[in-house]
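Researcher: I'm preparing a figure for a lab meeting and need a structural model of a single chain. I don't have an experimental structure, so a prediction will have to do for now. The sequence is pasted below. Please return the structure as C-alpha cells so I can convert it later.
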Amino acid sequence: MKKVLKLSLIIISILMLLLSNFCYATSNVAEQTTEDVNSVEMPEEGIPAEWARNLDPNASSEDMVMDGALENLYSEDGENSIMLINDEIEIPSNMTDSDIYLFQESISIEEDVNGNIYVIGKKIDISSNYINGNIFAIGEDITINGLISGSIYALGENINIGAGSVNVVYAIGKNVRLAENANIMNDFKVGADNLNIAGNVNRSLDAYVEKLNIEETAEYVAKGNISYSEEVIDPNEVLEAVALTKHEKNEKTSEELQKIAAIGKVKSEIITIISTAIIIAVIYFIVKNKQTDNSENYSKEIVSNIVKGILYLIFVPLVALVLICTIIGIPLSLLGIVIYVIALCLSIPVASLKIAEMIYKAKPVGTNKAIIILYAICVYIVIEVVSLLPAIGGLIRFLVFLYGLGSFMKYFSPSKSEKVKVEEVEVIREEN
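Model: Understood. Here is the structure written out cell by cell.
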C-alpha cells in the first residue's frame, strides 16, 4: 500500500510540473449569403459559350464577361464550400485525369487537370487552361491562372491570382493581388499586408489588411467587409457597397519584444522553480524515513550513482523492448517504461535532494531535517544557473542528471535496514 501511495504522489507531482508549463492561445467570419449568377451564350474563339458568366446581375447581355466557371459545376444550393469535381465534364485528350501532388522547390503546371492540385514549393506557377477541381498551394511566390471550377486555398509571401475565373479564393500572404481580367465568381477571403485588386469579385470581399489598392481596371465588387490599418485607394468607387473599418496597427519595437520575451522567460523559470520545489518536498516526505548509507566517502557514492544512472539509462529500454517481443512480458514492459519515464523526469530534483543531504550531514543545522528541503531548492537553482555556462554547463547538468537517475533507484528500492527487518520477521515466524 505504501508503494502505491508513493507512486501516486510521484505521478501527481509530474502532472503539476507539466501543467505549470502549459500555455495556450486564442476570426470573425462574416456570414455568407448567395446570389444567382446567370449564364450567357456569347461567342468567343477558344472558350466554350457555357463557360461564360455574368458578373453584374444588372448588366446588359453586351456587357457580360466571358471569363467564368462552368455553370453545371456550381452546387445547386449555392453553398460556398469546396467545389466537387464534375464527373460529367468532357475531358480533353491532353487533360490530366487525376489529382496532382507536388513538393519541390520550383513547381510549374501547364496541362489541364481533371482533379485537385496539392502543391508545396518555393516558387509555384500554375497556368493551366482548365482545372476541374480545387487548388491547395503553399509557397513563397504563387501565381495561378486559368479557369478553375473549384476554389483556391493559398498561403505564401507573394500571391497572384491571374487571368481566368475561380469559385472562391482563400489567401493569406504578405502581398496578394487579383490581376486584371481575373474574376472571382463568389467570395474572396484574404489576409495580407498589401492587397491589390485589378479584377472583379462577384459576391463578397472580406479582407483584413494594412493597405488596399483598387486599380482602375477593377469594375465590380458586390459587397463585403474590409478592415484596414493604413489606407484604401479606390479611384472608381468600386467599394461603394463594401463596409470599411479602420483598425489600429499593432506594432511593437524590437526592444519591446525583447522585454516581453525576457519577462516571459523569467515567469517560466519562476514557475519551474516553484513546481520543482513542490516535487522535492513530496519526494522528501516520501523518503525522509528511508535509511540511506551513511558513508563518508561521498566521491565514491557519486561515481557509483552516476555509473548506475548510465546503466539504467541504456539497459531499461532494451529490456523493455525484449519483454514486448515476448508478448507475455508486455504488462511488465509497460510498467518498466512508466517507471523509466518517471525517473527521467525526477532525476534533477532527486539529485538536488541527495546533494542537500550531503550538505546537511557535513554541516548539520539544529535537529530540524526539513531544512534539507531548503538546501535542495538552493542546489537546484545553482544547477540551473551552472547549466547556462557555455560548453561545460551542459556537461555538468548531464552528470547531475545521471547521478539523480542512479539515486532514484537507491531511494525507491528496499534499503538494508528494511531487508534486515523482513528477515527478522521471517525468523520470528519460523520460531513460532
